[in-house]
Amino acid sequence: MEQKQEYWGWLATGYFFLAAMGAMMAAVVAMLDVLGVTVIDQIYGWVSFAALVITGCGSLLLMVELTHIFRAYLVYARPKSIMCMGSYLLTSFLGLTFVYTTFFIYFVPWSGWVLVRKLVAVLDIVAALGLVVYPGLELAEARGRSFWQGSGLVALFLVSATSTGLAGVLLMLIFFELSGSEYLGVLSTLLTVSLVLQLVLLGSYLWGVRLNGTKEGRQAILNMVKGPYCVNFWGGVVVLGTLIPLGLSILGKMVPFAVGAAALVLIGGLFFRRTFLQAAERISMPGEENQQINDQQTKELAAALESRWMEKARWLKNQCS
Amino acid sequence: MRWGMLIDLKKCVGCHACTVACQNENHLPLAMKYCKVYKVGPEGEYPNLTSYNIPIACMHCQEAPCVEGCPSGASHHREDGTVSINPKKCVGCRFCLLVCPYGVRHMNKETGAVEKCTLCVERLETGEVTRCTETCQLKARHVGDLDDPDSELVRIIHKENARPLYEHLGTKPSIYYIMP
Ligand code: SF4
Ligand code: SF4
Asked: Is the ipTM reported for this complex over the cut 0.90?
């Protein structure tokens, strides 16, 4: 019986995390820009550039995950597939964020075209939101993994991405020594709201799967709350990634609290994706749990037999010669 | 034309001959099995106990999540209804492994492409039966055209009320089972 989802590991986790963080960082500044918030507009270009780099690194992880990296262009071949749609979304987001970033380079001729910049910002927000919600839709395609079939998965991914995006922007605000601006407070408050929402959605998602899910869905939750992934779940997602940053952001809007909260939110975002990817067991085939030896043991046995046969072949050859 | 198979679980004794024959036909390493045979049970309460064996390989689903999800088009439906993989197009994203509810796909580490049961289409095209069907000494397997209402396969499916495995998943498999 498959105990866990073993096909997509840390590389996919890293991609989902970085893409979500980058996309929401870009979406946050693009929204502020469209709304005409000018107090912190000095960092819009930098945040957007950081979002580009972060999402770009995520895409590299995705490429490394492929066994045929030089055929990577084929991921655009079948637009009907959700993976392919994801590739188009990722490419559009990277392209739009790049264009948006160029508006902040002073010597670029179009740097003063405010209306066009805002139009690009709106398109960038749409692409960013698409990029953030599509993992939820993509995982829901796995009909045999009922843990991913809950209706709140997309919302959960969206809220978690919003938290990590806000955390990224907060860190940049502090890095650019704009911690005195009133927007640090505003962003901290938004982060607090997002974390509360995340906690509520996480709880209701798990509760929903527990009540309505199949045996495998319930088992996935047990694995998360009591089983092999409980350290990642309770330690990484709930305590480090949500409760402590929530406490820190409620405690005060001072820089050390804000930095601590933002950094922990990022760690939590990574663990959230890791745990959610790993825990989703596939529906068992009848009798699969009776398999006397698992696939890994079969491989080891096969390798041992193979080497024994080679030994025998060598021995026979020596005898004949 | 849609190739399909019927497996009679009342006849299968779990000898694994089909697994080995398939490995032989497809030159698979010992650890890779396109067709696995699981032993179910004993289940139930004494004296109403039951135990049976169930061979599981690719179900050649008509609404195959692996085909729908494959971004490169490597996994595709052939005109004869079987699901096939073009190794030259496979980028190795493993999405199909993730979405196949039956867990029957394998990543070949040497070629970097995904593999699975092909329903021996090359044999079927030349009028032979699949290698597992040929090997099964208990005649537990039948292969034929599911679109032909007069075929022996369809006749037995109706007579025995054979059903695909996990129909509720909605993948419309082309492999039917006569349950014990
Ligand atoms: S059983 Fe799995 S691999 Fe075979 S067609 Fe169905 S989804 Fe695809
Ligand atoms: S691993 Fe290959 S066959 Fe499977 S979805 Fe990716 S490209 Fe398609």
From this structure: yes
